[in-house]
Each structure stands twice: as C-alpha cells, then as structure tokens.
Amino acid sequence: MLYEPVIGLEVHAQLLTKAKMFCSCRADYSGAMPNTLVCPVCLGMPGTLPVINEQAVAFAVMTALALNCRRPASLPASRTSTPTCRRTTRSPSTISRSRATAG
After folding, report:
1. Considering just the CA atoms, what is the radius of gyration of the chain in Å?
2. DSSP H/E element including 55
C-alpha cells in the first residue's frame, strides 16, 4: 500500500482593520490593557450574533489571490452557544465542517 503525504498549513494573521472580525470592537491593541477591548459578541456569549467585518473579508480575499491560494467551493461553519465553563474539552467555539462535507 502506497501513501501520499499531504501537508496542510493553518496560518493566522492580524489584518490592519479598525474593528475585529466578528464585532465592532476596536482592533487597535497597542497600549491597551489585556481583556479590555471586548464585548458580549467577541466573548461568544449566548444570544449574541456576530457580524462579519467586510473590510477584513476583502483583505483576506486580496491576500489569498496574491498568494495564488485555492479554496473549496463552500466553507460552512457553525458557532456553538455553550459557555466555556461547561466545556469538558478544549474545543473551539467555531467549528468548520468543510472536511466533513468535502469527502
């Protein structure tokens, strides 16, 4: 049986936007005390709904195009509403289902 090595990269970057990705909180962290630029949305509190920052999406698309990146046809994601204190594992609050739907 032959195996084909597949190597994937997950890259995190801080875009130069004025607001965060999913809320309108300031994204200027220079000189700010820890945990001060937060709101119920960025804390993932139950009942809050995130709104995507259009400028951040535009920057991400421009970066992907400049790097000649490929993407799947769809990128579904869901957000859990379970408070962190109830989690038994260190699961992320946003779970991508692209791998489950791709195969």
Report:
1. 17
2. helix 54-66
- Render pLDDT for 53-100 as a digit per residue (tens, 0 to 9): 999 889 988 988 898 987 778 777 666 555 555 555 554 555 444 444
| Ranges assigned E (strand) in the chain | 77-79, 94-96
**What pTM does this model have?**
0.57
Which residue do the tokens 């989690």 mark?
87
**Residues 65-96 as b or e (16 or more Cβ within 10 Å = b):** eeeeeeeeeeeeeeeeeeeeeeeeeeeeeeee
Amino acid in the structure at residue 48: T
Q: Rounded distance, CA 78 to CA 96, Å? A: 7
Residue 31 CA, distance from chain mean position: 24
How far is Cα 44 from Cα 83, in angstroms, rounded to an integer?
Answer: 8
Give Cβ neighbours of residue 89 (< 8 Å, ≥ 6 apart). Answer: none
